[in-house]
């Protein structure tokens, strides 16, 4: 069975994930620098609230499971994702 040569979608996914994490990290690092603080500007999307009692809970008697999901999209994470797409196209 011949394997087609081409770009791997898993490589793109992992590269995008790494770009988003790296961009968020850079945005977090420069949040107190005046002319770079815009990199940390973003919005939160969440299911449940870890600080409060607003987490989705499944109580099965012997087992209690708490669900929560938080996604923070920042300018830095978007720039990291765009940079990772450019890197993927160059590979």
Strands, helices and their partners?
Layout: H1 9-29, E1 42-47, E2 56-59, E3 64-67, E4 69-74, H2 75-90
Antiparallel strand pairs: 1-4, 2-3
Keywords: Membrane, Transmembrane, Transmembrane helix
Protein name: Putative membrane protein
Organism: Herbinix hemicellulosilytica
How would you describe this structure to a colleague?
The structure is a single chain. By secondary structure, the chain is of the alpha+beta class. It is 41% helix and 22% strand. The protein has one domain. The strands form two sheets. The protein has a two-stranded antiparallel sheet. It is flat. 12% of the residues are buried.
Brief account:
41% of the residues lie in helices and 22% in strands.
List keywords for this structure.
91 residues; alpha+beta; two-stranded antiparallel sheet; 2 helices; 22% strand
Strand line-up in the sheet with most strands: 1-4
Number of strand segments: 4
Assign the structural class, choosing from mainly alpha, mainly beta, alpha/beta, alpha+beta, or little secondary structure: alpha+beta
Number of domains: 1
Order of helices and strands: HEEEEH
| Beta-strand percentage range | 15-25%
Overall mean pLDDT stands at 84
- Largest sheet features: 2 strands, antiparallel
Distance between the termini: 25 Å
Shape: flat
State the low-pLDDT regions, or none: none
């Amino acid at each position: 069975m011949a394997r087609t040569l081409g770009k791997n979608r898993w490589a793109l996914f992992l590269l995008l994930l790494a770009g988003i994490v790296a961009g968020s990290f850079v945005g977090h690092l420069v949040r107190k620098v005046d002319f770079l603080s815009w990199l940390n500007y973003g919005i939160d999307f969440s299911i449940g609230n870890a600080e409060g009692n607003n987490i989705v809970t499944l109580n099965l008697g012997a087992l209690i499971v708490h669900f929560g999901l938080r996604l923070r999209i920042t300018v830095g994470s978007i720039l990291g994702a765009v940079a990772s797409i450019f890197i993927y196209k160059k590979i």
